[in-house]
Every structure is written in structure tokens, then in C-alpha cells.
Predict the structure.
Amino acid sequence: QVQLVESGGGLVQAGGSLRLSCAASGRTFSIYNVGWFRQAPGKEREFVAAIRWSGGSTYYADSVKGRFTISRDNAKNTVYLQMNSLKFEDTAVYYCAAEGPLRMVVSLRSVSYDYWGQGTQVTVSS
């Protein structure tokens, strides 16, 4: 069982930065792939970024590539999403999720993820 708690959301002006954190409970978190997803009002949940349990491979949606960076610190049971050059269209509730354990192929589909956090709101003002 993995429990996830997101933090770091807030209100920021366009062009600004935020760093989201996803803190996990459970000593086996290090063997789970972790993804970030987001959902804007009236829209479906969409993939943002993901990182393999080993930390060696990362994946990004085209809309955030070059602006967002996902990383993990398994010693701290935490995954981060550094978001730079934020745009109005990045406004959404951001969720972290875990799939696994020990899956070598990282899924970009939300249905593949077994554990979810409660979400953190990111609002970018234009």
C-alpha cells in the first residue's frame, strides 16, 4: 500500500515557477513508477510527466517538455515536479500517482496507476 500527498501548489503569475512535491508513505515507494497528471475544469485528466522507479528514465507531455522537470529522491520518499515558465493553460489540479511495483515500462495512462494523491491546485494568472 502506498499513500501519496501532494504539496506546493498555489497562485503564480505567468512566466513564474513552482515546485510540486509528492510525499509517499511506505518503505517500498522506491520500487514504484510515479506520474504527475493534471485536470483542468471541464477537461479530462491528462498526463504531465512520469519517472521510473529507478529514476533513470523520465517522460513528458509535449505541452510541458522543456519547461517541467520530474525528479525523485527515494531516500526521502518524495517525487518532485519543477515547473518553470508557467502558462495560463497550466492551471489545473495536479495529482501524483504510483504504479508498480518494479514495472520496467512506465505508463502514460492514468488507468495504469494504482495509487493517487488528493491533488494540489496550481493557478497561473495571465
